Amino acid sequence: MFEAIASPWLVPFDGSFRYRDAATSPPDENGSKKALKRQLKKQIRELDELQYKLYAYDRYSLLLIFQAMDAAGKDGTIRAVLSGVNPAGCEVYSFKQPSAEELDHDFLWRTTQRLPQRGRIGVFNRSYYEEVLVVRVHPEYLQRQKLPDGLTGEELWQHRFSSIRNHEEHLARNGTVILKFWLNVSREEQRRRFLARIDQPEKNWKFSAADVKERGYWESYMSAYEQALAETSRPWAPWYAIPADNKRYMRTAVAEIIVNTLQSLQLSYPAVEIEQKAKFAQMRALLESEKG
Prior knowledge:
With 292 residues, the chain is α/β, with parallel strands linked by helices. The protein has a single domain (19-289), classed as P-loop containing nucleotide triphosphate hydrolases (Rossmann fold). It contains eleven helices and five strands. The protein has a five-stranded parallel β-sheet with strand order 2-3-1-4-5, sandwiched between helices. The chain is globular, with a radius of gyration of 22 Å. The model has no long low-confidence stretch (mean pLDDT 93).
């Protein structure tokens, strides 16, 4: 089974994660904007080649899960990191408020239908983790989920953590490599980005008054993230807490983890059997005979 790539951002697997220990800004020594830009471009080129090998090898799929507070930069990170990947080999899904049909199924149902097939990259912009994050902060949402009687409180959340761990382990056993990114933006940086959305006309469409209202639940969200990451970071489905106040650094860090992970799989192009090579020679001769 896949083992997580060690990095400064890897959330420990022993349940000891504390959100206050996770950085929102990079260390000062992490280079200039130009250096980060060059590094990201290099990783984008490498990811393009690795995705092609992933598709040809056809033994693994890659699932990237992004969770964050509003304005942390999920959309921009997904767009930047995957900008060089062949669109035919990658699918991005954004999960918003569940529909009536989705609420008539278990909480993993709607995302399970969008899992990537072997050889492809799947991206979840938000995911089933919303069910232990936003729903935990707003437990009134549970009223719409028609849950069995008697399952409430901490027992409910522990059941969901258990379901998530089992689900992800099953996927990993069957060839889905899972990488989960918490883009950790500070409350002050989120405030600045919300102001930019208000002040810049081209960003007005991204602003929602509801996003500002959610800031009032900041500590509740941080507590929910802390437990979710501690309960579900495993070697086969690791969480990475990425500092998100510096967008260039954040995108470079995410790209580095993805590239290193795919490299660790030792992907290769399928070998051609001797009999097939003989047929290639015959076809070459036939095609060469058509000249002129």
